[in-house]
Specification:
Number of domains of chain A: 2
CATH superfamily of the largest domain in chain A: Tetracycline Repressor, domain 2
Largest sheet of chain A: none
Oligomer: homotetramer
Number of helices of chain A: 9
Helix content of chain A: over 70%
Chain lengths: ~210, ~210, ~210, ~210
DNA sequence: AATGAATGAGCCTTCATTCAT
DNA sequence: CATGAATGAAGGCTCATTCAT
């Protein structure tokens, strides 16, 4: 009996994963506005009704997708850089990891800022929202640690890390919306330059 | 006769403005996805059909709203700083002008990044889109001029200005989505710090 | 006073005629389904509301247009053939007159069969409908007279005339809907052939 | 399993047929212009959305209705006359078959000439339109064959068949619109007379 | 007589969601 | 568990018509 339940559970999980994969593919193809339950179900080889055995509603799919996106983000960051590297090189590696992840997967960026009805959280339960925030924070923590290793006090490292994240996100947004073309610039180049300038800034005590 | 036509024109404009106000309010309340012609009409005290005497379609409303927002942005930037100020002070004044504008009017930021289906341009005619892009560029040009006045070559000034804009936008986004609270930071403070550090960065030749 | 009223009446009529001209042009351009009050008003240089000073509603415009079309039809038929011609030549002339009118002005055919919701009379008052029927009949009477002059009894002439009209209308319809192309035939040629064969048919007593 | 799928398929088809029946009834009652998805759905006992599970859009309903009408027409023509009959009797039988079909089902005539915006083809895809044209042609082919069997050359048979079709259609139109009453004539009688006179016409070489 | 503003009913269509089977 | 049918609410938009001015 116990075994049977476990088997069922496993089946269940894998079907849910299947649907999530389908949803991701649909989001990729049609964007968040264009994705419909029908389309996701079709992509997963199910009928629309079946979706509701695995997700309470459309927002829940979105939430699950975002959660999973953040796991991939964390994985990318963890895989980057070597712990024994010089602190600054570690920072560079970790920062480029999250930046590169979003540059390569702009739909994940959409996802992260979706909920975000007109850019403000909605839909998700407060609890889930917190969980997701935490996972995002996790992905950025290695950079913060590296900044501390470079000699910054915890508060200063936090500030610097926030600024770094904001800078990257701003560049990604400009890139993704095509606005950056109007400046004839490239997001990746500018991000690298920001990182290069960081040690100088820190030395000159700006973030003290 | 002349007077009558003028009066009519004025009435017409004010009704259009009324509808635009209503649209802005609805966008504010329901977000861009939630805003419908029916809802906008209701907010303006009209029936849906009436809207179409003043706007060709829904996208046109959005376009008008954005155009008007960009005019206010430009006005804010123009009003800021004194021309006879030191270049760096001028830069600070102009940059704080656009940053402050969006910090105070976060929905205008949404608007600016809407077009943006899943954060990608859509809907507007290419021509209008270009016009709007140009007006955004206009608002940022004074900063670029100031950077040149500080001694940067045109190319370097452009790069630096782009980075500055991205930084501000990133901070505004984090602020607007509440993500910045998760770092316990404040967008305005961090933006000021970025500006303070600029001369140092430039001196150290980072953007060469 | 009297004179003033007459002047007003004349003005009125000419404005009504102007609107009718505009309506005809719009029907020509956009077809019956595509014609809207707005469009007609615009073409006439008026606003929609003004139309209603001259016509009770849209159907009334249609009725007036049809009435006028029938007048033109009658004029065309009257102008055709010479009374002193041989009866058969007269028949040919008159028949080609109405056939040619509709071949050259297919929209007038639409008009004539419109009312005709799914091809059944509607919209017009019974009285107006009768008037219009009478005028159509008037246009066909010369053919009937010619048939009698060719020796047919009144009943036989009526039958033959009806058949002739039906034949022509059938051909015009096939032509106008493009169906005749599927046979690789030409309406005018076939109509001429039908007329040519008429004397033979009559002689062989088919319509006795 | 197989049986289940078949049952489902059958159910599906019958529901589609039900909707088609409803659509036909609505067209009957309100004419083609007056028929709306709402109205059709209501007549079928459904909500508008349900229609779209069975038809892609409104034009598709119209197309299906016409296709089915043409199948019934072909069936009627095929069932008529005996192959071993004298050619002229065969012609009479086949011609009366299509004429009788439309005389008994005038709305099918409307349908056939609808597409026809202001009597001009529209709406249907070119491909479907061609298919439908072909099926109409199929229904008329037996008459053409009979005319050839009566001794006409292919070209002459085609001409004669086209004229025959036009004649019948013209009569049906006059009948259907009530215009024929204004002549005090009967379409069926006149069509029979046209057929009776055919051999004489052919003998006298009119269509040579 | 004409305007111009506005209405209200209607149009086709889409879609998240429910529920009996 | 999944289906498949269906709903109901909503979406953008059009248009004949009315009416105060």
């Amino acid at each position: 009996m116990q075994a049977k339940i476990q088997r069922q559970q496993a089946l269940n999980d894998s079907r849910r994963a299947l649907m999530l994969d389908a949803a991701r593919a649909v989001f990729q193809r049609l964007g968040i506005e264009g994705a419909s339950i029908r389309e996701i179900a079709k992509a997963a080889g199910y009928t629309p009704g079946a979706i509701y055995s695995y997700f309470e509603n459309k927002e829940a799919i979105y939430g699950a997708l975002l959660a999973e996106s953040l796991e991939r983000l964390n994985a990318a960051v963890e895989a980057a850089g070597r712990v024994e590297a010089l602190p600054f090189e570690l920072l560079r590696g970790k920062a480029n990891a999250w930046f590169g992840f979003y540059a390569a997967n702009p739909r994940d960026l959409d996802l992260g800022f979706y909920l975000v009805q007109g850019l403000q959280p909605r839909g998700l339960s407060a609890e889930l929202n917190n969980q997701l925030n935490d996972r995002l924070h996790d992905a950025l923590r290695p950079c913060e640690a590296a900044l501390q290793a470079m000699g910054l006090a915890p508060q200063a490292a936090l500030s610097e890390n926030t600024a770094l994240f904001a800078h990257g996100v701003g560049l990604l947004l400009l890139q993704h919306t095509g606005r950056i073309r109007m400046f004839g610039q490239d997001a990746t180049v500018l991000f690298a330059r920001y990182l290069d300038a960081l040690p100088g800034r820190l030395a000159s005590g700006a973030s003290a």
